[in-house]
Amino acid sequence: MSAHTTIQRTTIPQIKAMKGQQKIVCLTAYTAPFARMMDEFVDLILVGDSTAMVGYNMENTLAITVEQMTAHALAVTRSSEKACVIVDMPFGSYQESKEQAFRNAAYILKHSNAQGVKMEGGEFLAETVQFLTERGIPVMAHIGLMPQYFNTMGGFKAQGLSPEMADRIYHDAMVHTQAGAFGLLIEGSAEPLARRITENVPIPTIGIGASPDCDGQILVTEDILNLSGPRIPKFAKQFADAQASIRAGFKQYAEEVRAGTFPTLAHCFGVKKDD
Ligand SMILES: Nc1nc(=O)c2c([nH]1)NC[C@@H]1CN(c3ccc(C(=O)N[C@@H](CCC(=O)O)C(=O)O)cc3)CN21
Ligand SMILES: CC(C)C(=O)C(=O)O
Ligand SMILES: [Mg+2]
After folding, report:
1. Residue 164 backbone phi and psi in degrees, to 5
2. Helices marked H in 55-125 — which ranges?
3. Ligand 2 site: residues with CB under 6 angstroms?
4. Which sites are catalytic (predicted)?
5. Whose CA is closest to 121, among 208, 185, 30, 192?
6. Are 218 and 46 in contact (CB under 8 A)?
7. pLDDT band at 146 (very low <50, low <70, confident <90, very high)
8. Can you tell me the mean pLDDT for 129-136?
9. CA dihedral sign of residues 39, 198, 108, 9
10. By CB neighbour count within 10 A (0-12 exposed, 13-18 middle, 19+ buried), where does 58 fall?
């Protein structure tokens, strides 16, 4: 047995096969500590472009680059061994043409060792989904609320609430499925729409602010740990208060340094026993 055949990373075909069998548990991670801690609990880690907002305190996701996403993705793959890892293609790196999309997706995967990419878009994106899938790059299509349309939409607005819009998003889901997407991420959309899509596609749907009936769920990790800023979406639920625990640690450290009780000689080098 070779030295590196201990744990096999979950593959994209395995994620696809989970539909109808078991819920697909997904979270975002951008850096080593969270990737390392969540690896045993999640099936899939998304290196989300939400790091623009959560990690860099930007107003929206538009300014993050291919190089930044690649660096975050590499940190995540180096710090996990079990979860399937996919990466958000950042704004402007895939919308221009299917060739541009392939070039940037191949760059990201080559330099990060991640397994697939996610891209936001409706019907126009289907030929890109097919082009990449045929050439060895698995694509998850992100539909519904698409944060990269921040300027077109004038903010983050729930989608598919009217029958006309719901039908258009349903159609987008069918077209992406036909094009070979390995999964659909449905964000901020009417619940009946997300359920109807889930029931009518053979590929997994991953919901965020979508429906309990989606094949899997995802949230932004910092949101569920109370580590995000003040603007947390309605669909996020707080599962732990890491902020309280981290702030307590900062407070204690500051107090001990100011009081001169940290460090002690036990934290120092070259200290003689009888000093
Ligand atoms: N911290 C964080 N969590 C996220 O889930 C997330 C990000 N950042 N950044 C990228 C996108 C943007 N997302 C968001 C951000 C805000 C709302 C929001 O405020 N929605 C309103 C309803 C908007 C409407 O329909 O008018 C809400 O009440 O939740 C939704 C999705 C989801 N993603
Ligand atoms: C919110 C999830 C789905 C995402 O796209 C991100 O984290 O960027
Ligand atoms: Mg994203």
Report:
1. -65, -45
2. 66-78, 98-112
3. 28, 46, 48-50, 88, 185, 187, 208, 218, 220
4. 187 (proton acceptor)
5. 185
6. yes
7. very high
8. 99
9. positive
10. middle
CA distances from 73 to 106, 114, 250 (A): 13, 7, 28
ipTM of the complex: 0.94
How confident is the model over 1-38, as pLDDT tens digits? 455 556 799 999 999 999 999 999 999 999 999 999 99
Higher pLDDT, 29 or 229: 29
Rounded to an integer, what distance in angstroms lies between the CA atom of residue 197 and that of residue 168?
12
241 has a pLDDT exceeding 60: yes
Return the pLDDT at 230: 78
Run of H or E including 249: helix 242-259
* Mean of pLDDT values over 75-81: 98
Q: How far apart are the C-alpha atoms of 69 and 74, rounded to whole Å?
A: 9
Please identify every residue whose CB atom is under 5 Å from ligand 3, which is an ion.
48-49, 88
Q: Confirm or reject: Cβ of 180 under 6 Å from ligand 1.
A: no
